[in-house]
């Protein structure tokens, strides 16, 4: 998980560049559509939808766009997004690193072709379903900011049914729990005064691959960057570990 957490920190430094591509708007709008379709189109009664809306607002997506995405998911708006479906793809990156890709697409063939091209151009291979997913467990993750008392965090995490937590950097923390317990944990942490900036489902690797070769590191980071740059891709998760100086190769 350390490698993934460090990669998440690197990605935050690139958020401004990603937002300029308009990709954030596309990703978050699609997440709202799928959340609204998968449950009640009322954020008060749908935790996944409420979380997606909170992320959209944090990214300064206009309320009109949010309402439109909810309507599309509920089937009361129509349009080109009505056929979006969630699909998980799996593959290997340079050095045998396992990669999981979560996508929302209205055209499976297009998405698979785009992913296959991204892998092949950057030293990886798009695999069959199940080839790497056995190395990951899906968990609920609450991301916190401004954690000044770790003992208080431990007590609140235990009360909320958490499995573990990890302090990251700049007084930030990530608290893990079972998927079905995510909403309870999030609310418990908020009730205890913690600032929960995100509550999401995440694939956590059960084993990690250390990447030490600079060329492999550069190719791997470029592959992940390319995958995340595809419009249909929502999330990319991998099981690599890498020194900070190699990680910095991705910052351009």
TrEMBL record:
InterPro entries: Integrase-like_N, TACO1_YebC-like_2nd/3rd_dom, TACO1_YebC_N, Transcrip_reg_TACO1-like, Transcrip_reg_TACO1-like_dom3, YebC-like
Regions that span the bilayer: none
Keywords: Cytoplasm, DNA-binding, Transcription, Transcription regulation
GO terms assigned for molecular function: DNA binding
Domain TACO1/YebC-like N-terminal: 5-75
Protein's GO biological process: regulation of DNA-templated transcription
Pfam families reported in the protein's UniProt record: TACO1_YebC_N, Transcrip_reg
Compartment(s) where it occurs, according to its Swiss-Prot or TrEMBL record: Cytoplasm
Main location: cytoplasm
UniProt domain TACO1/YebC-like second and third: residue ranges: 85-240
Protein's UniProt keywords contain Transmembrane: no
GO cellular component terms, semicolon-separated: cytosol
Gene3D superfamilies listed in its UniProt record: 1.10.10.200, 3.30.70.980
Highest taxon of source: Bacteria
Family: Belongs to the TACO1 family.
Name the UniProt record assigns to this protein: Probable transcriptional regulatory protein FNW02_18515
Organism of origin: Komarekiella delphini-convector SJRDD-AB1
């Amino acid at each position: 998980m350390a490698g993934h957490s460090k990669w998440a920190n690197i990605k935050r430094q690139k958020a401004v560049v990603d937002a300029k591509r308009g990709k954030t708007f596309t990703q978050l709008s699609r997440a709202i559509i799928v959340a609204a379709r998968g449950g009640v189109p009322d954020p008060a009664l749908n935790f996944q939808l409420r979380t997606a809306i909170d992320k959209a607002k944090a990214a300064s997506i206009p309320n009109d766009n949010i309402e439109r995405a909810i309507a599309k998911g509920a089937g009361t708006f129509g349009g080109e997004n009505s056929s979006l479906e969630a699909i998980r793809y799996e593959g290997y990156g340079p050095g045998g690193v396992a990669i999981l890709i979560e996508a929302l697409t209205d055209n499976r063939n297009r998405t698979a072709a785009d992913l296959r091209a991204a892998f092949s151009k950057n030293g990886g291979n798009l695999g069959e379903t199940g080839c790497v997913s056995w190395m990951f467990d899906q968990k609920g993750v609450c991301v916190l900011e401004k954690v000044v008392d770790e003992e208080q965090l431990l007590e609140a995490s235990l009360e909320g049914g958490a499995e573990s937590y990890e302090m990251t950097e700049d007084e930030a923390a990530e608290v893990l729990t079972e998927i079905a317990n995510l909403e309870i944990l999030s609310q418990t942490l908020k009730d205890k005064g913690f600032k929960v900036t995100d509550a999401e489902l995440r694939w956590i690797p059960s084993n990690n691959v250390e990447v030490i070769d600079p060329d492999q590191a550069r190719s791997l980071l470029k592959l992940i960057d390319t995958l995340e740059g595809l419009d249909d891709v929502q999330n990319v998760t991998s099981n690599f570990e890498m020194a900070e100086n190699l990680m910095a190769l991705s910052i351009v």
